[in-house]
Design goal:
Blueprint lengths: L17 H4 L10 E4 L4 E6 L11 E6 L5 E2 L8 H23 L3 H28 L7 H70 L13 H27 L1
Antiparallel strand pairs: 1-2, 2-3, 3-4
Helix pairs in contact: 2-3, 2-4, 3-4, 4-5
């Protein structure tokens, strides 16, 4: 007695031929087109959910008579068209959000969502590219393939535009921080010059405010020492200020 392989993601009423069943496992795997002796399967994924690595598979069965059968008892490829509508709706939503948002966190979230969508669209396009040659007369399938091409391009543009937006904001923020740092350095430089200028005056005020009696042998040279101190302070102030201005230029 032969035990039939259990394929959980495959609809129970899909009586596919054994040559197709042998190519499947208990997991849906990647999006792909499988050809059997007289039948074929097209496996695509539902719109990816953020932060969820698993993908829900939708299986479309081309029977031996050439007709297609979709999931949930849908005839033809109507369910695939509705799947594309869901993809397009998500892409349009994120495109509108990218145009309106002014927050870095929202742009980062768009990137996190757009990346798996773009990757899913690339894999779906590869599966449809493989399916079309096996059913060249099916205009509906060809139209769906062409639509996936357009949506795949839109998803890639969404991903790259959101990345460029984030990189632009990062560069703009870095430039603002650099300008702020330069302004702070300029203010600090001016404060240092002011402190250097007033330091001799503070020293003189402290010296003159001391209630001590200067010895007689130092009284003749008091003003000489005071003048020399002020001259030294002016020289230091000039040298420091000139060196700072030269580096700033």
């Amino acid at each position: 007695m032969t035990v039939r392989k259990v394929i959980r993601f495959l609809p129970e009423d899909f009586e596919i031929e054994e040559s197709l069943r042998d190519q499947l496992s208990s997991r849906s795997g990647t999006q792909r087109f499988l050809a059997g002796d007289h039948e074929a399967l097209l496996i695509v994924h539902e719109v990816p959910e953020p932060k969820i690595p698993e993908r829900d598979a939708l299986v479309f069965w081309r029977r031996a008579d050439g007709t297609w059968r979709g999931p949930a008892d849908s005839e033809g490829l109507k369910e695939m068209s509705r799947l594309f509508d869901r993809y397009q709706s998500v892409i349009d939503k994120y495109e509108a959000l990218l145009e309106e948002t002014e927050e870095v966190t929202q742009v980062f979230e768009i990137i996190r969502h757009a990346a798996p969508i773009a990757r899913s669209m690339r894999n779906m396009l590869a599966a449809l590219e493989a399916a079309v040659p096996a059913d060249e007369e099916n205009r509906t399938l060809i139209g769906l393939r062409d639509r996936v091409r357009e949506m795949q391009r839109a998803a890639e543009l969404l991903y790259h535009d959101s990345k460029l937006t984030l990189e632009f904001w990062q560069a703009e923020s870095a430039e603002e921080h650099q300008q702020a740092a330069e302004r702070l350095n300029s203010i600090a430089f001016r404060l240092n010059l002011m402190a250097g200028f007033f330091l001799p005056l503070v020293a003189v005020a402290g010296l003159l405010g001391m209630n001590v009696e200067i010895p007689g042998f130092l009284q003749p040279g008091f003003w000489v020492i005071l003048g020399a101190g002020l001259l030294l302070g002016a020289i230091v102030l000039f040298v420091v200020g000139w060196e700072g201005l030269r580096r700033k230029k």
